[in-house]
Write a structure and sequence with these properties.
This protein is mainly β. The chain is 8% helix and 43% strand. It has 1 helix and 21 strands. Strands 17-21-20-19-18 form a 5-stranded mixed sheet, with no helix packed on it. It has a 4-stranded antiparallel sheet with strand order 1-2-3-4, with no helix packed on it. It is globular, with a radius of gyration of 22 Å. 39% of the residues are buried. The structure holds beta-D-galactopyranose (GAL). Beta-D-galactopyranose binds next to strand 5 and strand 13.
Length: 337
């Protein structure tokens, strides 16, 4: 072994090692945080720390000048709670926190090992609280519990406090979304009766529970509802029920959130892979701020062998002959609107 006796040589070797170390650390982190300026549907999407964005079956809300993306935190298979990220431009996302964690208490409905899916968050202006609803399956019971879970927080980034889980008005509740209408009323839209029925329930004024106003919208064996409203029309995209495997989307339209909802004959997806929703499954439709008639379709391209690496498909919605169409694009920017 070579022993460096000369003090000045030792000092310069040390300085060299420190400099190389700093270049590596900062060089890598600068690389990891390189800003993104376009959407690349289906490719790996990293947060500003350089980690894969782990927010699946999610939804986005806009609050005080920022977008917040809530979604399932997944391990290879496990459900690990709900993550939240923030962004000002929709391309670059900063990891904020684990907004809702599973509980170490084995008597809790959300004890570690439960399954939390499709979390959606809305703001209640009268209570000034952020309210999260999600699909909950109890630990060790497969998909048989079919419940809705509710959690609440004073701060958008959480931590959210779990309140309880239940079947809305006694109905099974699996895939779901939340929707706030023009008049401020909020709704839970959910797949019920082994996913054969799609139902809607109006929420109470504090958004923490359902009212008895609860109705079946249609019975077409659909799930993964994503809804938006424009010019007095309501649009809903759903998937068929084939588990993690992709299938063909269907668009329903209505003039009231209560229906009647009419199934469109036109496939709302267009481009290569349209018949399997480009290998994905709907989760949310996001109105872009400060742009008119600009909506982004959010879907998950599930990877059941490694759910954490399920890819995000964010695609622009265009109107063609009065109907919203999601057109495939390998790369695109908000200037496309
Ligand atoms: C899908 C559902 C997903 C997940 C999956 C499990 O039908 O949309 O959220 O529950 O089944 O197989």
């Amino acid at each position: 072994m070579m022993i460096i006796k000369d003090l000045t040589v030792r000092k310069s070797v040390l300085r060299f090692v420190v400099v190389v170390g700093l270049v590596c650390v900062f060089g890598l982190s600068v690389y990891a945080q390189k800003p993104v300026s376009r959407f690349s549907p289906g490719e790996e999407w990293y947060d500003t720390n350089g980690d894969l964005i782990n927010a699946h079956g999610g939804g986005v809300i806009y609050d005080n000048g920022k977008y917040y993306w809530f979604g399932e935190k997944r391990g290879r298979h496990a459900s690990e709670g709900v993550n939240v990220y923030s962004s000002t431009d929709l391309y670059n996302w900063k990891y904020e926190s684990l907004a809702l964690s599973q509980d170490k208490d084995t008597t809790s409905d959300i004890t570690i090992g439960c399954v939390m899916e499709r979390p959606k968050v809305i703001y209640n202006p009268s209570t000034k609280k952020y309210v999260m609803w999600f699909h909950l399956e109890l630990k060790g019971k497969g998909y048989s519990a079919a419940r809705a879970g509710v959690a609440v927080s004073d701060k958008i980034t959480g931590p959210f406090k779990f309140i309880r889980s239940f079947r809305p008005n006694g109905n099974m509740s699996r895939d779901m979304t939340l929707f706030v209408d023009k008049d401020g009323s909020a709704y839970h839209i959910y797949s019920s009766r082994e996913n054969y029925d799609l139902r809607i329930a109006k929420l109470t004024n504090d958004f923490l529970d359902v009212t008895a106003e609860d109705k079946m919208l249609f019975s077409n064996h659909r799930e993964a509802p994503a809804i938006f409203q424009q010019d007095n029309k309501y649009y809903m995209i759903t998937s068929g029920c084939t588990g993690w495997a992709p299938n063909k989307a269907v668009l329903h339209t209505a003039t009231s959130v209560w229906g009647p909802w009419e199934a469109s004959k036109v496939n709302p997806m267009s481009g290569p892979g349209a018949d399997t929703t480009f290998g994905g499954q709907s989760t949310y439709i996001l109105p872009v701020q400060a742009k008119n008639n600009a909506y982004i379709f959010l879907a998950d391209r599930w990877n059941p062998r490694n759910l954490k690496d399920s890819r995000h498909l964010w695609l622009p919605i265009r109107f063609r002959d009065g109907l919203p169409i999601v057109e495939w694009a390998d790369k695109w920017t908000l200037d496309n609107f």
